[in-house]
Design goal:
405 residues, alpha+beta, Ribosomal protein L11, N-terminal domain, Peroxisomal Thiolase, Chain A, domain 1, 4-stranded mixed beta sheet, 17 strands
């Protein structure tokens, strides 16, 4: 009897780590094939995938034999012309207020340049002027990213904005940016994970690309934290600044290996038990006001250094890389003492750490894309570099993304 195709099954399973459990058992059990034999063959073929989700098409024949085809899902690769990197950043209008130095803050609160630098490493920050909004800064960053990538807004399928300081409670600030850019198609939405926002947004974009929902996505981090600061609280008002950064990610077929270009792996966490350590004391559903930022500084410092370890170790385990393999570490720019302590704990060499907090301050969800932009502009980051992004924010939220530029 000639062998004939009895059926086909399509599903995604982790490369090198498949088991006979669902979705394998659900998809193939009805055909009566040897699930253990399939799992062994698949894991042997994809042993270098490091657990990355891989689409598989299984053809089952009437004699219960089978063959299968694996195809690596598209990875989210950051773009710029031929070098595959897109970047853009915006800081408040320098001709009006822009840069605010520590010396200027001495006239506002009981502080000094020496006190601020010693505890935070910050020397200046940018502050949005009256009438300048998160949408203004985000739009500037998005336009710069499109220009650097040689793309038009028609080439974009989705806009994701990470921000904790939207223009309005609703609609989403991203849709205002979408309108300003002239985008009549696709979609736009905001994400709120405070200082971890950009890592959460980039991870979300990666998943949209891997599932085929979108081919090109603008990911923006934009903040006007100056609008939620208590300018009489010297422990917080000296820390934060306003700004925006943006990248464009695009689907690109890869081999499903740790040597791929683009986003290799991301790991996210949150724990609401710590919400009262870093928060804003207002909101539409509680006080009906915007409120001000409140922070238990020592507790935030302690948890920031301790908590990031798990997501970074997960990223290393998923790819087989270590801190020694990194070309660059681009952390959330919260405080130089936190950055230095984190790098030391992770055994990352100081010369591999990108630091911009000294002249930008803490720009929350904007800090990582702004730091990326600076390291790209001055030539530190080069195509093929292995880069670790890491952030922690109010909630607490924290996450890490390992990518190859």
């Amino acid at each position: 009897m000639a062998k004939k195709l009895a059926g086909t099954a399509k599903f995604q399973i982790p490369g090198g780590q498949a088991t006979p459990a669902p979705p394998v058992g659900t998809a193939l059990g009805k055909f009566g094939i040897n699930l253990g034999q399939f799992v062994q063959a698949f894991n042997d073929k994809t042993k270098d995938a490091g657990g990355m989700m891989i689409p598989v098409v299984v053809n089952v024949y009437n004699d219960r034999s089978f063959d299968f085809i694996t195809k690596s899902p598209p990875a989210a690769v950051l773009l710029k012309k031929a070098a595959n990197i897109a970047k853009g950043s915006g800081v408040p209008n320098k001709t009006k207020v822009g840069k605010v130095t520590n010396a200027q803050l001495e006239d506002m609160v009981d502080t000094s340049d020496e006190w601020i630098v010693q505890r935070t490493g910050i020397r200046q920050r940018h502050i949005a002027v009256e009438g300048e909004t998160t949408a203004d800064l985000g739009e500037k960053a998005a336009r710069a990213a499109l220009s650097n990538a040689g793309l038009n807004i028609e080439d974009i399928d989705l806009i994701i904005l990470a921000t904790s300081t939207p223009n309005n409670t609703f609609p989403a600030t991203s849709v205002e940016i979408q309108h300003r850019l002239g985008m009549k198609h696709g979609a736009a939405f905001d994400m709120q994970a405070v200082c971890s926002g950009f890592v959460f947004a980039l991870t979300t974009a990666d998943q949209y690309i891997r599932t085929g929902f979108a081919k090109r996505i603008i990911v923006i981090g934009a903040e006007t934290f100056s609008r939620i600061l208590d300018w009489e609280d010297r422990t917080t008002c000296v820390l934060f600044g306003d700004g925006a950064g943006a990248v464009i990610v695009e689907a690109s077929e890869q081999e499903g290996k740790p040597t791929d270009r683009g986003i290799l792996t991301s790991h996210l966490r949150s724990d609401g038990a710590h919400r009262d350590k870093l928060y804003v004391d207002g909101g539409p559903s509680t006080t009906g006001t915007v409120g001000h930022l409140r922070m238990a500084g020592r507790e935030v410092f302690r948890h920031a250094v301790a908590m990031i370890t798990d997501v970074i170790e997960d990223a290393y385990q998923a790819t087989g890389y270590t801190s020694q393999d990194l070309d660059w570490f681009v952390p959330h720019q919260a405080n130089k003492r936190i950055i230095d302590a984190s790098a030391k704990k992770l055994k990352i060499a100081p010369q591999k750490v990108v630091i911009t907090v000294d002249h930008h301050g803490n720009t929350s969800a904007a800090s990582i894309p702004m730091a990326l932009c600076e390291a790209l502009a001055d030539g530190r980051i080069q195509p093929g570099n292995l880069i670790l992004l890491e952030a922690m924010g109010g909630g607490f939220t924290w996450g890490a993304t390992l990518l190859r530029w």
